[in-house]
Each structure stands twice: as structure tokens, then as C-alpha cells.
Design brief:
The structure holds two protein chains of two kinds. Chain A contains eight helices and no strands. Chain A has two domains: about 80 residues, Fumarate Reductase Iron-sulfur Protein, Chain B, domain 2 (Orthogonal Bundle); about 60 residues, no CATH class. By secondary structure, chain A is mostly helical. The longest helix of chain A has 14 residues. In chain B, helix 2 crosses helix 15, helix 3 crosses helix 4 and helix 4 packs across helix 6. Helix content of chain B is about 55%, strand content about 10%. By secondary structure, chain B is an alpha/beta fold. In chain B, strand 7, helix 14 and strand 8 form a beta-alpha-beta unit. Chain B has 16 helices and eight strands. In chain B, strands 2-1-3-4 form a four-stranded parallel sheet. A four-stranded parallel sheet of chain B has the order 6-5-7-8, with helices on both faces. Classes of the chains: A mainly alpha, B alpha/beta. Chains A and B meet through helix 3, helix 4, helix 5, helix 6 and helix 7 of A and helix 1, helix 2, helix 3, helix 4 and helix 12 of B.
Chain lengths: ~150, ~300
Amino acid sequence: MKNSEILTCFQCGTCTGSCPSGKYTSLNVRRIIKDSIKKDISDQPDLWMCTTCYNCQERCPRGIKITDAILSLRAESVKKGRILSAHRAVCKFLIETGQSIPIEDIHIAIRKKIGLGEPENVRKYPMALKDVKTLLSSTGFIELIK
Amino acid sequence: MKDISLFLGCVIPNRYPGIEKATELVLDRIGIRWSELKETSCCPAPGIFRSFDKITWLTLASRNIVLAGEKNTDILTVCNGCFSSLMDANSILKNDISLRNEVNLHLNKINKEFNGTVEVRHIVEFLHKEIGVKNLNKLIEKPLDLKVAVHYGCHLLKPAKDRKLGSAQCPVFFDELVEATGAKSIPYEGKTSCCGAGGGVRSAMLETSFKMTEYKLDRIKKAGVDCIVDACPFCHLQYDAGQVELAKTGKTYNIPVLHYSQLLGLAFGFTPEEVGLHLNAIRNLEFENKIAEIQKKNS
């Protein structure tokens, strides 16, 4: 990875020791940082076990932006078409609706019961949704997710 | 202070509308001039979309920010994810001219332009800074004699150098706001640890995410609290719906989960139903009776 800041890592392991996901998964942030200097690790499934909690980044004695580095590695992975099916579904949903969580009739009914109307988001405003789709097409996101 | 546009995001309106109702009630009671931001999209959620493509994430976030700018307002978020995406994108675009130019090329296609006039706030830090603990305390009608496990959530606090809300390791501002309602914030191990939902982990690796939730819930249970109070509907979902899932594996907690807007609403004298507590997956009758007694005692 082209990130000279990472070269200052002295492998102390504070990142791994601070990682809530690493307690339960194979995610080893110290190793990710070490390996990312030497080789392409964008196919590692562990990259997607990070909750982006920023503990590692906050506590790194070298001040390395570790979480940001993981985000960059993920982006490299996505560019190569390595997208988990659940994430692809969320992205397709965003492209289709401008939202990341579906709203069903039952939710609309619950809202009505407590005196709330339809959410004031793009779902209610077709021209605004069209704008969002224009942006997602313009940035290449629709092509990226295909 | 500029008027505020309330940005609700996706989880609150679509899954926990009670938080939306409670937020509206408390903002009105405090006397804050607000209106809901219309025509919004997903913030977009930091976990997945920020990971996937930075320019797309910045562009969609900037559109939401520009909508608030067109009304000459700042943005008030009620969700740590929305706060994180909108605040970070706003700050990046204010400071990085070349990224701003790149994003504006896309925005210009829908006749919009990012010009950096909007501030992005989160309801918890907003109430703490703009209203203050003392003033909020004066408005309390039903002091809540409750023991609370406060959950800040990662993206409210971190990255600390960008949030500028003090220590991310031992934060205090949210505890102070909770205690302004008469409740007591109970310390517990792993308080600033993650709920497990973020980063796209909940959506792609649900069981893994629940291991982190279980870690938190075990320690919260041990602390002997009446309820959890959070600042984010995604953490809220993880704790509330998560307890239902963990019950299937034989772990029962039955700990009520409240967003701060809902806790404040109760302290203002709104009923549990008015602040949407009945819309949670976890219902705890003992807790509801306790609230009823508190509200009756102070009426």
C-alpha cells in the first residue's frame, strides 16, 4: 500500500490488543499493517471484520491512521470486485432507493400510529431520488457494484 | 446560533420511529428552532459506503449537507453513523480543495455546489454545549431515579482529534447529560467498547457482531443497571434486537434500551408510549412500572 506513514509502525501490537473484533475473529490489525507494506492483501477476508471503532487509531503510539488505512485497503479490494454478497445487496439497495435500510408497509403503519407521516427522505421525493441516482452514476458507483 | 435542520437518516425513521418522535418532543420542549431536512438520502452509512468508494461517500454526504446550506441552517444528527459521515465529509471538503473540486464536478450535474457554510452536530454534544447541563436540569419535571449504563458509541467520540469532545478513553459529557435527568450513570467495564454493529460487520457477519454485543451486555448486566442509554439508533438496534437473538442461544438479559432523546422525554414527563419505548423489541415490565411510579410520584 502506498502510505509512507505505515512504515513507521514498530509492531508493538497496541492495535491488536485494542481491537474488539480481534477478540473473537481472525482479525489481526498488527499483521494487516505489517503485511500491507510488503504485499497486496486486499483479498484478505479479515479486512471486513473491522467495525471501524477507531480504537487502534486512537491508541497507536506512532499516530498511524490505522482505521483509515483499513478503509483504503477495503476500497482496493472492492475495485478488484471482491464484495461480500450482503454488502453488495446494501449497495444495490442504495442505488435503487437512496437509503440503506428498507421501509415496509408495517413500518409506515407504526409511524402513523404514533402520529408520524412518511419519512421526509428521497422515498417521498422522486426528483430528489433522481438526483441521487445521477450522482451515483456520475461517481461510477453503479458501475463499481455491478 | 443558526436554525437547525434535523437529519434523521435511515435507521430512525425506518426502524425506531419512537426515537424520532421523542427527539421532536424534546427539541420543542427545550425551545430549539428546528425543522426536518427534506429530500435527504442515506448519509451515506460510514461502515460500508466509506469503505467502498471515498468519492461516492463524499459526494452523497455533501448533497445532504448542501440541502441544509440551502436553508441557511446547520445539521443536527441523532445517529452516530450519520454524525460520523456528515461531520467527517464536511470537514474533509472544507479543508481539501482538490477533493472539494472533484466532488463539486459531480454535484454540479444536479445544480448543487458544496461551499462549506454548514456545521454538523450530534444531539448529545449539541445539548451539552449549546443548552448546558444546568439549564437542561432546570427543565426536568420528573427526575428519573434510575441506574443507567451509558453507551457513547464509537463514532460519537472517535477520531477524537476531529470530534474535539475531550477524551475518547474516559469521556464524561454524555454521562453528565444523563445525570441531568436525575439518573445515575453507573460505571462498567468496557464502557467505551464497540457494540459490534459498525463497519459493515452487522450486515455481513451477524453472529460475529453479536459476540461483541454479548461482551458488552454481560458487563452491563453485572453492573446492575435499570437500562442502557445510547446516542445512536444503530447501537440501539444492536443492543435491542441483539438481545432477542442472544436469547435464542440461552443468554437472557431483558435490559431496556433507550436513546437519550427517549430518556430526556421521560424526564420531561412524556409517557413511555409517547417516546416510543413500546416499539422496542425488549419490553421489561419491571422497568415500565418503575417509570410509571416515578412519573406518578412527581405529578
